[in-house]
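Known limitations

Files may contain more than one protein. Parsers should not assume a single record per file. Below, a two-record file is shown to illustrate correct handling: read the sequence, read the token line, then continue until end of file.
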Amino acid sequence: MKLELDHVVHFLNRHPIEAVNLLKNYGYHAVMGGRHENWGTHNSLFYNGLSYVEFLAIEDQHKANQTDNPLVQQLTKDIRNGEGVGQICLRTNNISVLKQTIRKRGFNTSEIFEGSRRREDGSVIRWKMLFILEKNFMPFPFFIEWEQTDEERLNELKKLRMITEDQENRSIKSVSYTVHNAEKAAKKWSKLFDVPIHNFSNSDEITAGIQIGGLEIVFVQPALKESSLYKVLQQRGERPFFVKFEPTLRKQGIELFGTRYQ
């Protein structure tokens, strides 16, 4: 099952243009993405290579409440606990085969969703999505297959000036989740993706991780209830809290609407 990180989804309780403006203040290029007309949401995008951060917000509350899209359903619930990254999406070039593979490994999936977004210039892009339907407090990643090839997408992003030359050569290296039990979380994801687990820990936290393509997923279990990470876990639940780029954005990191980026 060949997979790569496509994007991380950062839930916002404000207009996505605010993320564009804040990143601009730090010297980075982000753009408005557009509207998901059937789901009642809109977004802005921060591209680094073909991977990106999607800043997703509700535009039409009624439509968002009515949709059967699991990602939007999660957004409407999670945003009550605060802003921050809530999901990651992995890219595949054969979502139908992926669906069969996941089911053979003992996991329930949704049917394949058709997705589309109307850009600011009026053009429409399309894709397919697949979700895992397990009763798990920490949602498993979801999956995407784009209508265009990777090469076509990258060429179009350059043409539309949605990605700069500097950011084209940067990628997302790792995403860290805060969890109640790092070993248990890693075992579940290891089974899903059929990959080994690596463990390491220190006095403040217990950590386990897995590798999916070029992306490292790190599960961090706070060892002390007095730690700031434990407070994040109590507020937002088992969700991503840290995204690391290579090369790094800034050594000291950047705090963006409930998530730390480095």
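...continuing to the second record:
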Amino acid sequence: MEYSRLPLVVLLAVALTDATASAQQVIEAEKYAVASGHEAATTIGLEVLRDGGNVIDAAIATSLAVGVAEPYGSGLGGKLILLYREAATGKVYSIVALCTSPADLDPKEFTQLSSAERKIGYKSVGVPGLVAGLDEAYERWGSKPWQSLVEPAAQLAEDGIEIDATMQGLYKSHVSDLQKDPEASDLYLYEGELPPIGARLKNADLAATLRVIANEGGRAFYEGTTAKNIVRAAQKAGAAMSVDDFRNYQADFGEPLSVEYRGYRIYSCPPPLTGGATVLAVLKAMEQQPPLGADASFLTYANRMGRTLLCLYPQIQAELADADTSPSDAEAMLTQQAAERLAAAASQVDPQNPYPKTEKVDAAADGLPAASTTHLVVADSAGNMVSLTQSLSLHFGAAVVAPGTGFLLNDSMSNFSTHDPENVNHVGAGKRARSTIAPILVTQGDRAVLTLGIPGGQRIPTTTTQLLWQFFDRGQSLKETFAAPRFHLMRPVTAKQPFNLMEFEKDAPASWDQELAGLGWKTKRYPRNGHYFGGGNAIEIAETGKLIGVADPRRTNFVAGD
């Protein structure tokens, strides 16, 4: 990795600047809009639209650029989930490109690895899905030359990304992991140590890999030198990955899950994802209860939603994963009868003793604080919309880079359950671990209304549900919706964790702790930033056709449009 350092006075100026000060957070546009986790990526996507590309073209270019600009959160070595609404037909489609475990994996051997080995190193790596997911979208709906969508990301990698305070903050707790892999250390650290603020991270290897993809197509990632380099490094480290695992990889294309809610249709993605089903089931159940409108106390909503989640979590954990029965189980959770049952159960549940304790709770990585994703949205005034989430699983993924490739690899194997062989998400060969990711699209009749999504690991479904409630039930603007305090009901990932821990942001009213305690909840506060509760993006399409884009102020997200 080549780093260039800025003069000390510039470094100090950057260091003293609020990381979010330059983030553009709200825009109105007439033709189209893009929002992502980084200004450079948003700008690249917008230029594609200005050059006559469609929303899929823009999403592809933005996705690849985000992987360069935020290498700690996503990239070529990770997974991708995409929802697309096609204005011409009014149809909504889903592409799920989760990472896959090796076909020759020995599940028993994997369960005997240490917790650290299941999160860091090549044995935690699944076959990446991001490139296949983008390739699937392009083959179905892309309009611009593929090369023109990939080259901007390659140029960005070549020119480099400046290390800002937010990026350095994420680095701090992962330097020791990156130091364990010579290639990762060389590419992503500065002389083996924490990169200074203001340094420019240039990545010639990543630029070269992207240009191979640009010139030879998405399948070149799975059938060419890149795959061979990854497999060679993985096998050298004792992992079971093979070139056939890459050659056989395909993204899952199909129909999304959806429910009617308050006169709107809300879409999200199907299993192995659990996030979408969680959001939709909670909304549908809460719709069965008296509405909580604009004047309702936020705590009243938190208590109601928390009780609903207490009753839903066990079912989600027991039924949804990469299993033949999971798609039908997810659909069954979203019926009117299921919503009525869930609402009735939620009204009776005791937050302090909701369901029997078990020693077989699994600490899958999507429940950990360091779970990392990024979300981008694209929309135009015709009603075409994309909602796209991509991830390495934990920050910096497995903290390894195969020589010659330039990108960090995922640690998606850490999302499997390992303690209970009967668990539907138990680790297996050729299997895709479930994820809490939950991209959202909303329509009303034949009108496109909203594209929205947020990162944040286990917090994704709860935060997404809150955002939709703020927007549709309370009638808040998108800006107000994203600015409101957030809470999360912790799903226990160890047998010692409580069922009733309500987490929320530090700037929430001081009275919340006492009031929630009176309702049976334990509480814990977190800083108001994007590290824990995530930083999402959204675009609303008003009835006039005007687009209103919002980038979450908790991260250095950026929204732009024309």
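Parsers that stop after the first record will miss the second one. For reference, the second record is described as follows. Residues 202 and 471 are 40 Å apart (CA to CA).
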